[in-house]
Design goal:
Subcellular location: Cytoplasm
Helix content: 40-55%
Strand content: 15-25%
Structural class: alpha+beta
Family: Belongs to the RuvA family.
Main location: cytoplasm
CATH class of the largest domain: Mainly Alpha
Mean pLDDT: 83
Order of helices and strands: EEEHEEHHHHHHHHH
Number of helices: 10
InterPro entries: DNA_helicase_Holl-junc_RuvA_I (IPR013849), Hlx-hairpin-Hlx_DNA-bd_motif (IPR003583), NA-bd_OB-fold (IPR012340), RuvA (IPR000085), RuvA_2-like (IPR010994), RuvA_C (IPR011114), RuvA_C_sf (IPR036267)
Pfam families: HHH_5, RuvA_C, RuvA_N
Low-confidence stretches: 134-148
Number of domains: 3
């Protein structure tokens, strides 16, 4: 399982990038938001990845953050939402906006993405509302105050320990809010684990 790539941005297209890792070029599908966050051609970059496997294909999809990747996983679990539609949604909405739209039941905002009609937007909101829960409440300034990347890395660590994306995000957001600015990854994970284990 390839969970991230660190290398040099070789080239980009409308919906993909090529990341050169030690002389090997990886073709990575990506949202417009991720592509714009990768930086200039030839510079070092990191993408979080999800490997899609079908009967006759294998495809890497890349994201600028672990949070965006978690949302991709949640979205593609909804019936009728494939990788292309999920990337279109993530191109139109930042994870924090998507979270708030789902929690508030704002299907019109979800339908702003290309390829998402009113019925599909309604299904996405309905199916993900319970899974997302209060994530939106913890994705405000508190996450921004954390050490760069610490919150995303903490969520990733929680996922690696077997927590569901929604559980991990809520626990890390709560830990980050309690610890305040400059929280370290270790402190975030320790406190998030304690919060996640509470009934």
């Amino acid at each position: 399982m390839i969970v991230h790539l660190k290398g040099r941005l070789d080239s980009t297209g409308i919906d993909h990038a090529v990341i050169d890792v030690g002389g090997v070029g990886y073709l990575v599908g990506a949202s417009a938001r991720t592509l714009s966050a990768l930086g200039p051609i030839g510079e070092a970059c990191t993408v979080f990845t999800e490997l899609l496997v079908g009967e006759d294909f294998q495809r890497l999809v890349g994201f600028s953050s672990a949070d965006e990747r978690d949302w991709f996983r949640l979205l593609t679990a909804v019936q009728g939402v494939g990788a292309r539609v999920a990337l279109a949604i993530l191109s139109a909405l930042e994870p924090v906006d998507l979270s708030r739209a789902i929690v508030s039941g704002d299907k019109a905002m979800v339908a702003r993405a290309n390829g998402v009609g009113p019925k599909l937007a309604q299904r996405i909101v309905m199916e993900l509302k319970d899974k997302v829960g209060g994530i939106a409440l913890g994705l405000g300034p508190a996450v921004v105050n954390a050490a760069p990347g610490a919150s995303a890395d903490a969520v990733s660590a929680m996922l690696n320990l077997g927590f569901r994306p929604a559980e991990a995000s809520v626990a890390v957001a709560a830990a980050d809010e309690e610890l305040g600015p400059g929280a370290t990854l270790d402190a975030l994970v320790r406190l998030a684990l304690r919060k996640a284990s509470k009934p």
